[in-house]
Input
Amino acid sequence: MTPSVTHVSGTVTGDVEVRFTESGVAVCRFRLTDTPAQWDAAAQKWRDGTPIRYVCTAWRTLARNAAESLVNGVNIQVRGRITEIRDNAVYLSADDIGISLRQRIAYTETSLPSPAATPVTAPPSPAPPSSSRPATRRPGNPPAWWDERRPSGWSGDTRPPAAADGTPLHVGR
Output
């Protein structure tokens, strides 16, 4: 009997661990926590339910991409197969992983903002121009190669406005 495919969503908890087999195949492992909301009829409000813990494993290109894209605290969706349940955790073999856009903006190599993109919020407060990106890459920031490929005729910073901690600001919730 083949294991059934399931879809889960949750928050990445901790760092992604990447290793390579003796033959050079990439494999990564990360933890995912889903805390479902439950309606409390007596109190007439939503409460957090019991957290469900997942241990996800991905192989080959998906493992490399997950290691480059996932960080602690990012909400994601995983499509995969349950391989076992033990130690109060569900073990998944991931077939596909997607970053949730509910609380952040995600850029891909083919979907970076165009030079004609218009900001959707008020411009950030004036600051001295900086030609270099921060040393640490945070979710929502374009990759480091973006500056190198950006045509020299573009002026200003094309990244979306961000909060002090680097997370993108959102409009229209």
